[in-house]
Amino acid sequence: MFLIMDPYEWVTSDYKLRKNRDLEEMQIDINKATSANAYSWIIKGNITMKFAQYSERVLDVGCGWGRELSRIKNAVGIDFTLPFLKTAKNYVKNDVVLADAHHLPFTSDSFDFVVVSEVIEHLTDVMKVLDELKRVLKPKGKLLIQTPDKKLTLSIFISPEKCGHVHEFTFPELKNLLEAFGFKILQRTGSTIPYIPSTSKFEKLNSNKLFFSFWKFMNKIIPLKWDIIVLSELDKKT
Q: What is the CATH number of the domain that holds 229?
């Protein structure tokens, strides 16, 4: 179990941090873009920290404004959204690069650990991206992917198209895809709180304490994983 922080405290403290920063240059609503499922961020973040501390070099694909980067000294971030990167450069000391995940600007075998959080569902060619991730990872390198679960998440609140989702996966689908590229699944987990897209009229529930309390109670009765968080290891021989 990787949950070490109350999700309501996580959301409210993170919101205050962002509100206190100069975000006027942003072309999108940064508050909505980064206020997704609190539980999943905590779980994924703790897995990230667990493996990042043993990695010489870490890559954050789709780093956004640098929330994860700020906690990892040996990480490089890439993003395709210039306003996000401008904010990240003012927020973190890490290197951040404007780059496309389909064409990573790094040499082969460059990283020990790669994080791809809430990104893969937006990519046009997932096969190409996985091929690139395989290329830049060292043998036995770790890959952490977080993505909404197609079976549970978006159909309840909003259509995938309005969230900019090009692809969606169930866990078996993602598992089969990763294994086809030589990745061995080490761990699967996920959030017990429904993922509410930033474009949904219900998005404000992400920071509602009663909403969290209700789903924490429901999880004791019907445990569900509303998103997919998968840690895998690369076998370069495949």
A: 3.40.50.150
Give Rg (Cα) of the chain: 17
The verdict on residue 3 lying in a domain is no
Nearby residues of 231 by Cβ (< 8 Å), 6 or more positions away: 47, 51, 142, 143, 144, 185, 186, 187, 188
Whole-number Å distance between alpha carbons of 201 and 190:
23
Instruction: Give me the pLDDT at residue 12, please.
Output: 37
Q: Is 52 left (phi over 0), alpha (psi -120 to 50) or beta?
A: alpha
Average confidence (pLDDT) per 10 residues, the chain, 238 residues: 34 39 31 42 69 85 83 87 84 88 96 91 90 96 89 56 72 95 90 65 71 74 77 82
110 is a domain residue: yes
Within 10 Å of residue 194's Cβ, how many Cβ atoms? 21
Q: Give the range of the structural domain holding residue 180, as residue numbers without chain letter.
A: 28-234
The three-class DSSP label of residue 144 is strand
Look at the chain and report how many structural domains it folds into: 1
Evaluate whether residue 18 is within a structural domain.
no
